[in-house]
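Lecture 7 notes: from sequence to structure.

We start with a single chain of 299 residues. Read the sequence below before looking at the structure.
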Amino acid sequence: MEIKQLQTFYTVSQELNFTKAAEKLGYTQACVSLHIQSLEHELNQLLFNRIGKIITLTESGKQLVPYTAQMLELEKQIRKIGEDELECSLIRIGICDSLCVNRMPRIIERYKTYRPKVEIQLEILKCSQFYTALANDEIDLAFTIGYLDKEAGICYTCEKEEPIYVLSSPSNALARKEKIVIEDFRDIPIIFTERAAYYRRNFEHELNQQGIQPKIVLETESIQAIKKLTQSGLGVCILPYTAVEEEIEQKQLVPLAYDCNYGIRSHIIWHKDKKLSKVQQEFIDMAVDYIKTQEEKGM
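Now the structure, written as tokens:
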């Protein structure tokens, strides 16, 4: 039996008139009769008494009515699954700390005004952990920064070059220099992020090439801690612009005149076998739009 046959039966059972039922369903009367006949044949039961123009339910028909109502309600709820997904769903996002400071809160704020009921879970990970987390379906997508390993199993979008700066407090002597070379960092206290960060590795490589042993005063994965300690004058740090734009604008941190052209890029990635939900794809689309808009503004 088909849903349309049950719908026809239920409508006729309420109207007890084939013509009115046909008008309500948008069918021809012949189509309504055919649906009822097919259902009666399949059940091997008469469902309606037809005495002249008077139609009444048989005992079998009366028993079928509540079951039909339940099945039609279930069918209605099943059809709502896709609609409910748009409002009551979950997006699990992996992100590195440097992108979580400024950019992600703004993207989430914009998205939540559009989909206020969608739950968003952020998991701060090292970039090296993203691929495993995606493969294990622990996260739905990730915002990464560095040099992307374009593996066969990973889809990616929104490649954006990320400016990298060595920064200090305004009172640091290096902040007053118009041109800085790598030798200027000899014996300068440095506050480093975790070792896996590509921009740290590039900077350390440049120091090592000149025989300079970096004077590391602190290593931490906390971008906020690095910024606060640099502002206090403890040392210099190296971070992406997206993590320090507010501090630079407020002159709490000063970008030093040292070239960090490392070709670091950010990306949005997900597993190729992951069937993204509508809300997850919407989030990616909105994030891409925001990032491109900011890039056009030179931010």
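The first strand starts at residue 48 and ends at 51. Keep this in mind for problem set 3.
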